[in-house]
Design goal:
- It is built from five helices and five strands; from the N terminus they run H-E-E-H-E-E-H-E-H-H.
- The chain has 172 residues and is an alpha+beta fold.
- The chain has a domain of 83 residues: Fe-S cluster assembly (FSCA) (GMP Synthetase, Chain A, domain 3, 2-Layer Sandwich).
- Strands 3-4-5 form a three-stranded mixed beta sheet. Strands 1-2 form a two-stranded antiparallel sheet.
- The two termini are 49 Å apart.
- 12% of the residues are buried.
């Protein structure tokens, strides 16, 4: 029986590695792994005032407007979406070309992912859109992240899918 979170190891039926209250002798530990309790006196301690930032450094003045800079790129968003797979075709939606665009607005605080589906009647459409929304919600610093479903231009795997997807779909 595998150990699951919240269960004690003893309940797995396997004997514990060490009996309870066993003290492991330091002799079994290699001396190379043992480090001294701290640096020798005077070593690694900077002179007083050196390397210490002045009081209030890095704190904006009171009332100053601060901008949270996000350095998120289209490539990072597409990389994060690669694990999202269309369950009917069993290929990633990025490789299938279902992601039409990644747009940033308002100084990078708002993200819109434009995507389509393989057909308007795709039964997995809501699930795929939910998975894309879950992925883009994980990016820090965004005030808003949304998925926009678009139908123009119509999806065509011959022109929109990656070469790897075309190979799997036998489109050449």
């Amino acid at each position: 029986m595998p150990c699951t979170p919240g269960r004690r190891a003893e309940s797995t039926g396997r004997p514990p590695l060490h009996p309870p209250n066993t003290v492991i002798s330091p002799a079994v530990i290699s001396p190379a792994v043992i480090s001294p309790p701290g640096p020798p006196k005077g070593v690694g301690v900077p002179p007083k005032g050196v390397g210490v930032p002045p009081e209030g450094a890095g704190v904006p003045p009171e009332g100053a407007k601060t901008k949270r800079c996000i350095l998120l790129t289209k490539e990072q968003v597409l990389d994060a979406l690669k694990p999202v797979v269309d369950p009917e075709i069993r290929l990633g939606i990025v490789d299938l070309g279902l992601i039409y665009g990644v747009d940033f607005d308002d100084e990078g605080k708002k993200l819109v992912v434009r995507m389509t589906l393989t057909s308007p009647m795709c039964p997995y459409g809501p699930m795929l859109m939910g998975q894309v929304q879950d992925v883009i919600n994980c990016f820090p610093g965004l005030e808003e992240a949304k998925v926009e479903l678009v139908w123009e231009p119509p999806w065509d795997p011959r022109t929109m899918a990656s070469d790897e997807a075309k190979d799997v779909l036998k489109i050449w």
